[in-house]
Amino acid sequence: MKLKAGMLQRLLPFLSLIILFVALSIASPYFLTANNLTSVARQTAVFNTMALGMTIVIISGGIDLSVGSILGLSGLVGTMALEAGYPIVVGVLAGIVIGMLCGFLNGLLVTRLRIPPFVVTLGTLGIYRGLALIFSNGLPVHKIPAAFSFLGEGNLLGIPFVAWMLVICAVLVHVVLEHTRLGRYAFAIGSNKIASIYAGIPVDFHITAVYAIGGALTGLAGMIEASRLMTGQPTAGQGYELQAIAAVVIGGGSLNGGEGSVVGTLIGAFIMGLLSNGADLLNISNYWQQVIIGSVIILAVTLDEVRKRRAV
């Protein structure tokens, strides 16, 4: 009986995605069109990339509320490099490096100050956003090479280029989690940090590394967002942390740490993307979309807690 319940719990996100897909196909004649599905793929690429980084962080028992601000700062610095005349590859790498440095600082503050990640990243949320506004004087960056749009809007072999990038990132994160020491230690630390310390695992090092990886992926997401908008917005990414956390939780990740998967996170992110797209097609207010997202998060966490209580 417990085995069946566990199997159902693992399949629930996938079943929910199928049900939502079918429901939207029936509710709106515009949903099941090539243009709309391509648009969904491009829109969810940003959240998917961020959520992959958030997956590693949450598995290790942490959380990063600053990812929206990191996205904005990374996209801004990357586009400022492009405006200064640097090649597109250099601009994209600049955004990724800025994201990695922000994540590294988050991990360093968590491990050195022994302050809960919630508090640390809540503080850096404001710091990174403030830095983006200071660097830009509150003004967006517009003078960007037209070729930069390929990152977010281009196609490769008839498939959105961001979809290829997402697949590569997903495979890399999956390999890290399932086939490297960092991944195994992340699960161990998230499951029982004290036991990990006694087992001789260098906990502080791996927690810092996890945040740095999450920041790098968020930096890439920031450049994808800048490419889609063709502007570097210092205010970009506001509220995106909610989307990233929701994707991980809906996909089966636990806010208590020790649980999560790449496939589950991708499914969760696509559920969030379909909810947003379906709401737009059905003319549902953006205000109600926030209510729906918050409700879905509470429901996912509740189901996770119920499952754990039954397993005890």
Structure description:
This protein has a single domain (10-311), classed as ABC transporter involved in vitamin B12 uptake, BtuC (Orthogonal Bundle), CATH 1.10.3470. It has 13 helices and two strands. The protein has helices at residues 2-27, 34-59, 67-83, 88-113, 117-136, 150-153, 161-179, 181-191, 193-198, 203-229, 240-250, 262-281, 286-311; strands spanning 155-156, 159-160. A hairpin with a 2-residue loop joins strand 1 (155-156) and strand 2. Helix 1 packs parallel to helix 12 (262-281), helix 3 (67-83) crosses helix 10 (203-229) and helix 11 (240-250) runs parallel beside helix 13 (286-311). The model has no long low-confidence stretch (mean pLDDT 87).
Question: What's the overall geometry?
Answer: globular
- Largest sheet, if any? 2 strands, antiparallel
Spatial arrangement of strands, main beta sheet = 1-2
| Cα-atom radius of gyration | 19 Å
Condensed summary:
By secondary structure, the protein is mainly α. Helices cover 77% and strands 1% of the residues.
